[in-house]
Amino acid sequence: MSTTKKIAGAALAAALGVTTLAACGGAAKDEDGAAASGAPKSKTVTLVSHDSFNVSEPVLKEFEQQSGYTVKVLKSGDAGAALNQEILTKGSPRGDVFFGVDNTLLSRALDNGIFTPYEAKGLAGVKPEYVLDAQHRVTPVDSGDICVNYDKAYFADKKIAPPQTLDDLLKPEYKNLLVTENAATSSPGLGFLLAAVGKYGEEAWKDYWSKLKDNGVEVVDGWEQAYNERFSGSAGGKKAKGDRPLVVSYATSPPVEVLYGEPQPAEAPTGVATGTCFRQVEFAGLLKGAKNEEGGKALIDFLIGKKFQEDMPLQMFVNPVVKDAKLPEVFTKHGVVIDKPENVAPGTIAKNRDQWVKAWSSIVVK
Question: Are 170 and 323 in contact (CB under 8 A)?
């Protein structure tokens, strides 16, 4: 699977690579204010993540100054690859906290026992629907909705109403208009497959996808190609002369088109088909065998703190999971709220994901 949060716009943000920011303050203290065992604790806490993790420098520095820890971010490719590395190094992890496992990979991570349970400070402020592990081996950090986006200008010019539901995409007026990502190689591609599973059931989704293929859906390898090359509504797609006015992307893509528009448009050029969505939730967990367990706990507390949660939307183009976190104006003005996204239980995904992807491939890309 590709990077779990290839939220539209993350590809436009500057990559951090492996980042270390200096912190002020001395060694971390235990509850009594003294260094444990008479020796100073590590001043560095390492966050292992997929490539899309980002945080603004002032917000991270504030945490470092207040906690006394220096944060090192170790980016490790896409979410699946990063998780694989932690499973292979179980018990001797490369860092203290892992961020980026989502609900499509959650059961795999938990079954492999790579996390130490920790109930984060502030967890009571997280929306309860996102707390998917009662043992608190992982803590929810963000959510994002994979949805079909549409090119407003195309449908206005053609005087056709844009689709709003999965069923709509099967109608003849939308034949040969949709491009999606390969479910075997792409996170949004897999999410769109799971949207059909959630809507139609664990067997009937196959019939849906057969009909979608008959209606001319195009499949490409990943989000970058689908959104920035084939989709006619994005800035990149316009330059590439893309001719598909429907694309599988994210509910946050329209605000990103406004934010990075040159010149910045008064209205988003793209819209969201709100009845086509699958919700991803991303988690962080304290890695079993972490060298700096106390620092790891402090870092997880920070990730669900209001400061990080309100910084996160414009850094990773995802939504906060904390109840009182406010969204930036570009999100509230140009984004949409998905009230009823499709969901599939993590255990069900873990049990069936591989066979579903194989079945999808035989139907769609054979």
Answer: no
The answer to whether 13 and 54 have CB atoms below 8 angstroms apart is: yes
Closest CA to 285 of 2, 142, 96: 96
- Inter-helix orientation angle 346-364/205-214, to 10°: 30
Give per-residue pLDDT as tens, 45-97: 999 998 889 999 999 999 999 999 999 999 988 788 888 899 999 999 999 99
Is 360 strand, coil or helix?
Answer: helix
Whole-number Å distance between alpha carbons of 162 and 173: 10
Phi first, then psi: what are they for 114, rounded to 5°?
Answer: -90, -5
Tens of pLDDT, residues 28-44: 334 333 344 444 567 99
pLDDT tens-place string over residues 260-290 = 998 999 999 999 999 999 999 999 999 999 9
Asked whether the predicted pLDDT for residue 12 surpasses 60, the reply is no
Q: Which residues contact 284 (CB under 8 A, 6 or more apart)?
A: 97, 98, 99, 100, 138, 139, 141, 299, 300, 303
Say which amino acid occupies 106: L
